[in-house]
Design goal:
Transmembrane segments: 56-79, 91-112, 163-183, 195-214, 245-269, 281-303, 309-330, 337-361, 373-391, 403-422
Structural class: mainly alpha
Organism: Pseudogemmobacter faecipullorum
Pfam family, one: MFS_1
Distance between the termini: 35 Å
Low-confidence stretches: 1-11
Protein name: MHS family MFS transporter
Shape: globular
Membrane topology: Multi-pass membrane protein
CATH topology: Growth Hormone, Chain: A
Length: 426
């Protein structure tokens, strides 16, 4: 176990311990989150909703998927409040347990055939719990890393909690791929789909073991020493940091839209529209998670070397250009799909790798947990919650080009807000 932070505010946590704790925690949280996203395409439409219209069932499943994104700001408010009042460590443990328990319960839920309409209602409630927990997890994990970072390395340290997203995606997709590869489709739909949710018990135990071994961040400890804590951090954010909150929300918009187009929507399109075998669709997603992770690591270095402001502008411009190639690449043929995933997840890693440090930058330590968490999770509402549903509806009603225009519009909004935020605030 670590010793308490000394009065001088110097960290006694080693860099390896800090970065491992931030990475392991977000890996577990995102594993839980993406297990649901995958099941929302492969399992839930058939098991938790009335049958008769496959598209309607899929859209209903995506609707429950989106609930978590609306829950995340509430989690950010509650966990952010305590994270800014009593500390990052205890709050992160509570967020991890909230997310993990919700995930395990999903693995135990009865289906629509067993209890009728109560099944999707219970599923929606658990999905709310997932979002509530993740809403408190992300900001604390980023601060655990960045508030322990030495000068000139905030992007690099801030990259580690972001790396939990591709690792969690890899593990969740890999788990489903193994199940589909080694058990029959009938067994998978009967009981196999529950195993990734129930496996969260083991991951929770690992996460708790790692996080109980860390101490408070030096920046927050120094803020407490100087009595800089505020009574209600959320009120302080809405009173004095409204512009940072607004601009930061849309600075992260295209990050979320791009990611969920390249993952949840693409998985649905490949399996439902193109008729791709599930194992092949998941293998494509596993490949994308590897590209995503490598790109995040590169972004952590480039963000510190180039500066996050210029770096984010360049990456956002690249995403805008990529949007024009979305429709031509989304045609039948695995080669084009792999090119699409390679470019999309490469760009995704570049923007996601530095967005954590960028969103935390405008807020002082006393309200940073609340401010950065609210910003990130408001962005998830406008970007992530609607992306799979919107892309499915646009493609079905207006063709594949409209999905590219949707991504382009998101990139333009993000670019304007990055420029409006300014170099010093990013």
């Amino acid at each position: 176990m670590s010793q308490p932070t000394p009065a001088g505010g110097k960290a006694v946590n080693s860099p390896a311990r800090v970065l491992t704790a931030s990475l392991v925690g977000t890996t577990i949280e995102f594993f839980d989150f993406y297990v649901y996203a995958t099941a929302a395409v492969l399992v839930f439409p058939a098991l938790f909703f009335p049958q008769g219209n496959d598209t309607a069932a899929l859209l209903a499943s995506f609707a429950t998927f989106s609930i978590a994104f609306f829950a995340r700001p509430f989690g950010a408010l509650v966990f952010g409040h305590y994270g800014d009042k009593i500390g990052r460590k205890v709050t992160l443990i509570a967020a991890l347990l909230t997310m993990g328990i919700s995930t395990v319960i999903i693995g135990l839920l009865p289906t629509y055939d067993q209890i009728g309409l109560a099944a999707p209602l219970l599923l929606a409630l658990c999905r709310f719990g997932q979002g509530f927990g993740l809403g408190g997890e992300w900001g604390g994990a980023v601060l655990l890393a960045t508030e322990n970072a030495p000068p000139g390395k905030k992007s690099w340290y801030g990259m580690f909690p972001q790396l939990g997203a591709p690792v969690g995606l890899f593990l969740s997709s890999g788990f489903f791929w193994l199940l589909l590869h080694y058990i029959s489709t009938e067994d998978f739909m009967s009981w196999g789909w529950r195993l990734p949710f129930l496996a969260s018990v083991l991951l929770i135990a690992i996460g708790l073991w790692v996080r109980l071994a860390i101490t408070e961040t030096p920046e927050f400890a120094e803020a407490l020493k100087k009595k800089q804590a505020v009574k209600v951090p959320a009120l302080e954010v809405f009173r004095n940091f409204k512009l940072s909150l607004f601009l930061g929300t849309f600075v992260a918009l295209v990050t979320f839209v791009l990611f969920y187009i390249c993952t949840a929507w693409l998985l649905s399109y490949n399996t439902k529209t193109l008729g791709m075998p599930l194992v092949d669709a998941l293998l494509l997603q596993i490949y994308g998670s590897v590209i995503f992770g490598i790109s995040i690591v590169i972004a952590g270095k480039l963000g510190d070397w180039m500066g996050r402001y210029i770096f984010l502008i360049l990456v956002t411009l690249a995403i805008a250009v990529f949007s024009f190639f979305l429709a031509p690449l989304m045609t039948q043929g695995m080669t084009k799909l792999y090119i699409f995933v390679t470019i999309g997840m490469l760009l995704m890693g570049q923007t996601y790798g530095v967005i954590g440090a960028a969103l935390a930058a405008p807020f002082p330590p006393a309200v940073r947990y609340t401010g950065s968490s609210l910003t990130f999770n408001f962005a998830s509402i406008f970007g992530a919650s609607l992306a799979p549903y919107a892309a499915t509806w646009l493609q079905a009603n207006h063709g594949m080009e409209s999905v590219g225009y949707y991504l382009l519009a998101s990139a333009v909004i993000t670019l304007v807000c990055i420029i409006a935020t300014g170099r010093k605030a990013v």
